[in-house]
Design brief:
Blueprint lengths: L4 E5 L10 H9 L2 H12 L5 H10 L6 H8 L8 H10 L2 E10 H11 L3 E10 L2 E8 L6 H13 L6 E5 L5 H4 L4 E5 L3 H4 L4 E3 L12
Parallel strand pairs: 1-2, 1-5, 2-3, 5-6, 6-7
Antiparallel strand pairs: 3-4
Length: about 210
């Protein structure tokens, strides 16, 4: 099957109902500190890389298995699987790009049905998180660059690319997409969107495409 279109989704607060790092932080007792940084990062007030490093450092010492268990029991957004199934029937290749963690996105792949995912990795040693992170989605420009690489690989142009996200670090996705969907998004992203969905139901996107 030749894929004629590309659909790219953010994970946290787009495919998943919440921010993975905030949920991990709540469980570890550092929720308030991490949530404050997350809010500023998603609104574009502080650099995404700096915010990611700062937030993950607060998870140092958390049992790795606790993180795994949490990431395998996250709540997904209503309509996510329905939308992805329908897009696949319309010859879309579906990719998840997340500034969050592969512990969550890899597990969700088979549940929600997207084709592949790129995210970051929480380093752990001796059964505990080290407070360090690395991976493919560390910077505010990472998602946009990855879309360009996917477009080249799949021979799909910008006009046939749709991106869906909610925060400032999704702006680089929008720059490489012909259809830009702001889903329950921060104002900084809504201002650049073609389609705005303010209800937590991803299937509503089907009314516009």
């Amino acid at each position: 099957m030749r894929f004629e279109r590309l659909a790219v989704f953010d994970f946290d607060s787009t495919l998943m109902d919440g921010e993975t790092i905030d949920i991990l932080a709540d469980a570890y007792g550092v929720g308030a500190e991490v949530s404050n940084i997350t809010t500023k990062a998603m609104s574009g007030e502080i650099d995404f890389f700096d915010s990611l490093i700062a937030r993950v450092s607060l998870l140092k010492g958390m049992p790795y298995q606790d993180a795994v268990d949490i990431c395998h029991n996250l709540p997904y957004i209503k309509g996510a699987k329905q939308l992805i199934t329908e897009l696949k029937s319309r010859s879309y290749k579906i990719v998840c790009l997340s500034g969050g963690f592969r512990l969550a996105t890899t597990y969700a792949k088979d549940i929600l049905g997207y084709d592949t995912e790129f995210a970051n990795i929480l380093r752990h040693k001796d059964g505990l998180l080290t407070g360090e992170v690395g991976g493919e989605m560390m910077f505010e420009f990472s998602k946009g660059q990855m879309i360009q690489r996917l477009q080249n690989l799949l021979n799909i142009d910008k006009t046939n690319t749709m991106s869906v996200g909610d925060g400032a670090n999704d702006l680089s996705m929008f720059a490489q997409s012909g259809i830009k969907v702001a889903f329950c998004a921060k104002e900084v992203l809504k201002n650049e969107a073609d389609i705005k969905i303010d209800e937590k139901d991803l299937s509503k996107i089907l009314n516009f495409i």
